[in-house]
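Both lines are retained for reference:
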Amino acid sequence: MRRWSAYCQAADDQELADQLLALQLLADQLEALQLLADQELADQLLALQLLADQELADQLLADHELADHELADQLLAVHSFPFQ
């Protein structure tokens, strides 16, 4: 009877060990998924920042080009003003 009891205890211990291992593997998978999600979020935020930087650069360039055109128009107006 003791042998049967020891066998049952060993089987219970092994089943518990298997369940703990399965839980550990699941926890590792969840951690890996979280790291992947964090990296994807970081990549998306970086892409948004790059897009915002590009839009700002485009706007600054457009403003600069507009200022150049306005200056050119003013210089043309001054040079074409009939002096007496």
